[in-house]
Amino acid sequence: xxxxxxxxxxxxxxxxxxxxxxxxxxxxxxxxxxxxxxxxxxxxxxxxxxxxxxxxxxxxxxxxxxxxxxxxxxxxxxxxxxxxxxxxxxxxxxxxxxxxxxxxxxxxxxxxxxxxxxxxxxxxxxxxxxxxxxxxxxxxxxxxxxxxxxxxxxxxxxxxxxxxxxxxxxxxxxxxxxxxxxxxxxxxxxxxxxxxxxxxxxxxx
Length: 205
Prior knowledge:
Layout: E1 4-7, H1 14-25, E2 33-37, H2 44-61, E3 65-68, H3 71-77, E4 81-84, H4 91-98, E5 103-108, H5 111-119, E6 124-127, H6 141-151, E7 156-159, H7 167-172, E8 177-180, H8 182-185, H9 190-202
Parallel strand pairs: 1-2, 1-8, 2-3, 3-4, 4-5, 5-6, 6-7, 7-8
């Protein structure tokens, strides 16, 4: 299981997004990091064209690439899996199409979602928002996050307002890893941000 799950900022234009991912991967370690391509505003064709160079970058660094929501695009480009938000294709259908070896992540916000993700064959879940995150509803907070993770039967990644300063506390709370958007793709140096995040996560080991 990877320690860092880097979710792209869908508001970035394609050239800027590609450059940001390339920068972030300069700080990555194979087996420690995964990338989710999330660009909801793009058509299937535009997402396909963006995914191809990102997949090449990820392959060069030994990092899996997951596509947000679009199982068809993941299949078309040969991505390593998908991440399924609410209202996406049913998890069991995605697993049937992608096969047992694919990474399939699911967005969850409560115990019922985590149980459904496990029952449907998800590889992991993101649980959010752990901390205050604009527009994402009330934060779970560390005690509730730890309670939910402790009862979950699959790896859970913390998402929502996460930065390097919370990495140690989240690992102590049972998180399998941390999922980030702005902490990496909003940083002046995404590669340095990834290195700092990995160091913060490892400090608790």
